[in-house]
TrEMBL record:
Residues 253-324 form the DRBM domain. Residues 194-203 have a biased composition (Low complexity). One of its GO terms (molecular function) is ribonuclease III activity. One of its GO terms (biological process) is RNA processing. Residues 190-219 are annotated as: Disordered. CDD domains: RIBOc. Keywords: RNA-binding. It comes from the Eukaryota. Residues 67-156 form the RNase III domain. This is RNase III domain-containing protein. Pfam families: dsrm, Ribonuclease_3. Signal peptide: none annotated.
């Protein structure tokens, strides 16, 4: 009926905020002709292979490959942080460090990095058929990080300026959208009683922070960017009407949406297979896989704090897979 892929649950990592989900971008005229830029090639075939290892496949990867791919991702993550910090610092000279950190956090979100990955078509370099690839934000974000790390490793420190110019051109429309939404947020919080409002008034410097996001200066991180599509052809993500108090899509919605999707297509057996991390009490975390009529269609992208959260993640992945399969 349909195929997907399975992998072992990753090590537990913190859940990312949603607020950098970007709609389809229409770059301004001077960008549109050459944007997005062509990718920078990784010349060394072994480094290229390591960078484009498929993290979600039916066949498990060799432990050495996983290690080297993880190291490339580690390097790429550090480079992306530096490149985005550099862009924001250079372009937005009128903003404070709190402002810049707020925008940087949004642009480093896995959904934004996944979008960048798809804009330049990196997913097409993954081995295997398109049906084996799931539009999973975390997987594609890790692919982009490993690619950036691979480019730098392949070309050496002397390539940093070329990498910087390439990435700054790619990130510019995202950064401008992020800035505009940030400005709108700040303007909406100004009032006659507090005409000088700025996010710095609730900054990390001992005066409070966004609930659940201690490094984020804004009171409401939902306002940093509008929700919309992750990338052309990959289906809709959360809309404002479906957001819960933390700014993410209500966890039950994806489970409900998947159930309705199956009912409309008369699929009979929707089954979740849940497993925990072997811990107890407050330390227990959950991982879930989804099967429809006996076929695997998706799994969690990270450990969930509750079984429902894990199932919601898996349901979202399954919906994206089912809606976008060839």
């Amino acid at each position: 009926m349909y195929t997907s892929s399975s992998r072992s649950p990753p090590q537990s990592r913190s859940t990312s905020p949603w607020y950098s989900r970007f709609p389809d971008l229409d770059p301004v005229e001077y960008l549109s002709r050459n944007w997005p830029p062509a990718i920078l090639e990784i010349v060394d075939p072994e480094l290229q292979r390591i960078a484009f290892l498929p993290r979600n496949t039916r066949s498990p990867l060799e432990s050495t490959d996983v290690k080297h791919n993880g190291r490339a991702g580690y390097l790429g993550e550090g480079l992306l942080t530096a490149l985005i910090s550099d862009f924001l610092y250079t372009e937005f000279v009128e903003y404070s460090d709190d402002d810049l950190m707020a925008m940087r956090q949004a642009l480093l979100d896995p959904v934004a990095i996944s979008n960048l990955c798809q804009r330049v078509g990196l997913q097409s370099y993954l081995p295997g058929s398109p049906s084996d690839r799931r539009p999973d934000d975390h997987t594609l974000a890790m692919l982009f990080e490993a690619y950036i790390g691979g480019v730098y490793h392949d070309r050496g420190p002397s390539c940093y300026q070329d990498l910087r110019e390439w990435f700054h051109f790619l990130i510019r429309p995202y950064a401008m959208m992020c800035k505009n939404n940030y400005d709108t947020y700040v303007d909406s919080h100004r009032s006659a009683r507090d005409p000088g409002y700025s996010p710095s008034s609730s900054s990390r410097h001992g005066r409070g922070h966004a609930s659940g996001h201690p490094d984020y200066a804004l009171e409401d991180p939902r306002m940093i960017a509008r929700p919309g599509t992750a990338a052309p052809g990959l289906g809709m993500y959360a809309t404002a009407s479906a957001l819960d108090a933390r700014g993410s899509r209500a966890r039950g919605d994806y489970i409900k949406d998947l159930k309705e999707y199956c009912e409309k297509r008369r699929y009979k057996n929707l089954v979740y297979h849940d497993e925990d991390n072997g811990q107890n009490g407050d330390f227990i975390r959950w991982w879930s896989k989804v099967y429809i009529d006996g076929s695997f269609v998706g799994e969690s992208t990270d450990w969930g704090n509750t079984k429902k959260e894990a199932r919601a993640q898996a349901s979202k992945v399954a919906l994206n897979f089912l809606r976008n399969r060839p």
